[in-house]
Every structure is written in structure tokens, then in C-alpha cells.
Amino acid sequence: MPEAQFTKERHIRYFLRCLKTFLPDLYTSNDSNRMLLAFFSLAGLDLLDVLESKTTPEERQGYIEWIYHCQVRSGGFRGFSGTDFGDEIRTRDNEAWDPANVPSTFFALVILLILGDDLSRVKRVECLKWLPKMQRPDGSFGEVLGPGDNVEGGGDLRFCCFGAGTRYLLRGRSGAGLDGVEDIDVDKLVTFIESCQAYDGGMAEGPFCEAHSGHTYCAIGALTFLDRLSSGSEKVQLISPGSEKYESLVRWLVSRQTTELGEEDDSEDDSDDGTSEANIAQDLAEAVAGLSIDESIVKLLAIPPPSENSLHWAGFNGRCNKYADTCYSFWNTATLEMLGKLPLVDAAGNRQYLLEKTQHLVGGFGKGVGEPPDLLHSYFGMVSLAFQGEQGLNRIDPALCATHRTVQRLHALPWWRGTE
């Protein structure tokens, strides 16, 4: 079979359209997540190494100003400007109607770094004073502060990752300029994350829930952020090679690679000739009725072994017994990259799946086979390819989900150099 091609120029045009023109009406419900959409658009162009050549300095400065307009004066960033009713009428009593948002704060900071901003206008101290207020007694993080400073929103591993990531970005290794600023409770956060590991090794949204690749990425991302700022020698078992927790997690992640792609089939034809799933199940039930266990086993339908052709495309799913999905190529490979175990996957199969099955003709990537492109799957599809060294893509940090150039800008900040 001919080698699959990464259509870089089409992807550039796709991300430029998303950045500079109106998005399709399906994005309307995501208006309050505009900070996230901005991240995908700008980070996508940066990953393609064309952000500075395809946008002007004036445009990039305009994006920076919009992000700072979303900064809340008491610390953190809102998800979009639609809730801003003005600092002049903002009071302690009404600020809960225009709250800072934990995920949006993380993405706002990363976008500023991608755009080359020095974060000098970020209310760093205020943000780091606000962050511990977002932590619940069990160690998890919420999304926003509601009336009476009550923590509102979800409490799963996504917010733990963004909370730890914001701390990583603003606290820095030296913690310069933060005397007297309360830190989050790191031990409680680690304990909560550890409690989310399911019986099969993957990480769930909370204790005793089903393992999921997205939450697994968030768990290991949070621990990676914490570990990068840790001065102690004691390692968390989940990210310590050789420990039972680590090994079971790696096995679960590697097991997520699948050749079940969910391709479109002729289901209508099946129903016409009487071979629908319901009919097959009924025929099987009738065939084994009254038989002994051994006889029943003999009567079971034969499952053909995988063919060489079916193994050519191997994407990833997010849970057991699910079809492959573009974004799970990211969630799983990024987590394995953080754990130092990415070589365990079938990189060629993942590449063929992404480029031949979900890469779209107009640029971008769809969620699954035959689906139209969207920003989230387009960015995550490219990031997974970048981990595998795809030509035309920049190197990327798996925890920050941004290019190494962005990480270098972060580490050049005063509070990282210890010169503030």
C-alpha cells in the first residue's frame, strides 16, 4: 500500500479558517469555551510552525489583548468575554456572576506563552491566592467560585490537571516573589488522584468509576506538573516504573489500541436479508437451547482471526470495547509519552489510522471514520503524530500540550529563573 501523506498545507488552511473566520453554527453552544477554541486554533498553527508567518504582529497583539480582557481582577481568567460586566460595577456581592474559570485560566496562560507574551500583566499573586480556594476538602478541584465562595462545577480529574498546571505555570521552580502566598494542598491532591485508579489500571473521573483515557491523561498530567516542581525524592507510585500501580496503568493504556474503527457498514442491507444482530442472537439462542455446556461451546459462532489488512489501521479507544477515536490517539499516546512508554504502541498503525481514516480532505481531522473535522480532534490528531516524529510538526511537551518553544519561553520567565 502507498505510504499515507500528512497534508500539511491543508491543515494550515483549516486552522487559519478557524482562527480568522466565523466557525460553523455547531460551535455556538461552545461560546462560553471560547478560550479553549482559541487555544486549539493558535496552538495548531504553532504546532505546524506557521503561527508567526501566517499572522501579523498586530493580529497576535490583538489576540493577547483579548486574553487579558478576560482576566478577572481578583485572579484567574474567565472563559470568554460574555460574562464581563465591567470592573467599575464589580463588587464582592456580584463577582460570582463573572467568575474566573480553572480550565480557562490554564489555557489563557498557555496561549499567552504561545504568542510570545512575557506574562508581565498576569495577576500572578492574585491568581495563586485564588487557586487554593478552588480545592475541595477531598483534594480535588472545582471549576468556579459561586456565591459565598462555594466551589462549583465538576470535581473530576480534568480540573485537578488544570489546577496543577496553573500552579506549575505561575509558581515556578523557585517560587520567587510568593512569600506568604498559600500553596494548594499537594498531598491531598495526590491522594485524590491515586484514589481514582480503577481495578483494571486505568484512571476514572472519581473513585470507583470506570477507567477512561481522557481522565487518565489528566491524572498523569497533574502528577507530572507536581513532579516537575517537587524538591523531594519520594516518587508517586503511579509515575514510578516498577510499581504495581504504574505497570497496571501502562498495560491498560497499551491495551487501548484497537483495529475496531467503527467504519460505516451496510446496516440497511443486513436488515433486509434477515442477518441483523437481533436475528443472529435469536438464531444462536435457539441453536444452543437445551445443550450441555460443552455442546453449547461447539455451537458458538466462529470469530475469524484478524487479517493482515485489518491490522493495517490501529487507532485507540478511550474505554474497553469501544471504537477508535482520533482524540484517544492523543489521550493515550500523550500519557504513555509522559510515562516513558510510548515505544510500546504500534506507531505505524496509529499513523495509518489518523492519516487514512480520519484526516479530512479539506484539512483537519474528524472524530471517526467519515466524520467532518473539528478543532479538538484536528489538534489532538496532529499532536499524536508529533509524538511519533511526523515531518512538518514541531516537537511538543505532552503535559503542557504545547510546543517545546512554548516551554522554553515559560522557563525564561523571572519566577522560573529565580530573578524576580
Automatic annotation (TrEMBL):
Gene3D superfamilies reported in the protein's UniProt record: 1.50.10.20
Highest taxon listed in the record's lineage: Eukaryota
Pfam families named among the record's database cross-references: Prenyltrans
Necessary cofactors: Zn(2+)
Limits of the Prenyltransferase alpha-alpha toroid domain: 6-401
Cited InterPro entries: PGGT1B-like, Prenyltrans, Terpenoid_cyclase/PrenylTrfase
Keyword Membrane in annotation: no
Keyword set, alphabetical order: Metal-binding, Prenyltransferase, Repeat, Transferase, Zinc
Protein family (similarity comment): Belongs to the protein prenyltransferase subunit beta family.
PANTHER family: GERANYLGERANYL TRANSFERASE TYPE BETA SUBUNIT (PTHR11774), GERANYLGERANYL TRANSFERASE TYPE-1 SUBUNIT BETA (PTHR11774:SF4)
Name of this chain's protein: Terpenoid cyclases/protein prenyltransferase alpha-alpha toroid
